[in-house]
């Protein structure tokens, strides 16, 4: 059984898609008593849903959610920061509480300017967390204890893999693994569409495409081989795969990937107000 979190109370501000995925992981792995997980979920029906589904304490009042908490997960949208994280809510946060942000494009400097004197850990998870296959990068700010970082690793480690990084790399991480599931779903959908064009039933085409992505990712992770080596193993000289790869290269699939990552980096700067 997973080691319990060394927290008396864990609070969330925001219980949307990502907040829920993390809550599902924590409660599923029994990392702490669900009743000691408090979620400020903004809307009563959402608070009730989270309580009924996971046993957590769902609230509309963020101040009540954070009171006496040892760690506070910021899981609202970046655009909500200035309107939500202020006034009475900031005052209700206990002096020693660790702030754990999953928000894209919101810097540790910005968060530290709101929650003055608090240790801040910035992270970038991704949606496959919801099925225990997430990838979360963890960037601790200055003065964060090793114990707090380990707690963050436990929280995200119960629903996927974790990687410690420096904050300077987090926008690149966002562009690769944070947004990456979006790119992969587009590619699965496209491959499935192409399968339908070739005569396969839709459901079969989606299963074939999705399992191919999942299995190929697993091969990279488990063999430790460079993706190009694994690609060569599928590609017989003069065979069928190389004909397909040539068509993909003609479609500039690699260039599209560079462009996608650059577009996310640009958008992150815009959201940070730097452009
Ligand atoms: N969706 C993704 O793939 C990823 C998202 N993130 C980050 O996670 C954060 C949350 O994203 P999602 O969960 O996808 O968004 P979401 O829209 O599903 O969740 C945001 C939640 O905040 C709630 N909310 C609105 N006003 C509030 C208030 N005053 N107090 C408390 N809660 C309030 C909304 O009702 C909603 O449930 C964002 O900052 C995003 O950048 C990070 C990694 C991946
Ligand atoms: O699209 C977004 O803003 C978030 C950040 C990483 C993935 N989704």
TrEMBL record:
Residues 9-99 form the Pyrroline-5-carboxylate reductase catalytic N-terminal domain. InterPro entries: 6-PGluconate_DH-like_C_sf (IPR008927), NAD(P)-bd_dom_sf (IPR036291), P5C_Rdtase_cat_N (IPR028939), P5CR-like_CS (IPR053790), P5CR_dimer (IPR029036), Pyrroline-COOH_reductase (IPR000304). It is an enzyme of class 1 (oxidoreductase). SUPFAM superfamilies: 6-phosphogluconate dehydrogenase C-terminal domain-like, NAD(P)-binding Rossmann-fold domains. Coiled coil: none annotated. It is found in: Cytoplasm. One of its GO terms (molecular function) is pyrroline-5-carboxylate reductase activity. NADP(+) binds at residues 13-18, 75-78. Belongs to the pyrroline-5-carboxylate reductase family. This is Pyrroline-5-carboxylate reductase. It comes from Succiniclasticum ruminis DSM 9236.
């Amino acid at each position: 059984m997973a080691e319990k979190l060394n927290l008396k109370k864990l609070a969330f501000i925001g219980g949307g898609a990502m907040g829920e995925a993390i809550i599902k992981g924590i409660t599923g792995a029994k990392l702490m008593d669900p009743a000691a997980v408090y979620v400020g979920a903004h809307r009563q029906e959402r608070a009730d849903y989270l309580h009924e589904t996971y046993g957590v304490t769902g609230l509309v009042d963020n101040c009540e959610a954070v009171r006496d908490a040892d760690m506070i997960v910021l899981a609202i949208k970046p655009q909500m920061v200035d309107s939500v994280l202020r006034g009475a809510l900031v005052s209700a946060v206990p002096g020693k509480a660790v702030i754990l942000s999953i928000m894209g494009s919101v810097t540790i400097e910005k968060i530290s300017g709101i929650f003055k004197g608090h240790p801040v850990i910035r992270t970038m998870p991704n949606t496959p967390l919801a099925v225990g296959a997430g990838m979360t990068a963890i960037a601790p700010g200055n003065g964060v204890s090793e114990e707090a970082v380990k707690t963050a690793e436990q929280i995200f480690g119960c629903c996927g893999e974790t990687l410690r990084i420096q904050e300077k790399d987090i926008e690149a991480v966002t562009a690769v693994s944070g947004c990456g599931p979006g790119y992969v779903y587009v590619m699965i959908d496209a491959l499935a569409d192409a399968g339908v064009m070739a005569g396969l039933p839709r459901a079969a085409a989606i299963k074939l495409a999705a399992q191919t992505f999942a299995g190929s990712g697993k091969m990279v992770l488990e063999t430790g081989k460079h993706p190009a080596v694994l690609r060569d193993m599928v590609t017989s000289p003069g065979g069928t795969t190389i004909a397909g790869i040539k068509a993909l290269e003609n479609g500039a699939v690699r260039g599209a990937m560079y462009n996608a990552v650059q577009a996310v980096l640009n958008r992150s700067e815009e959201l940070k107000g730097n452009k």
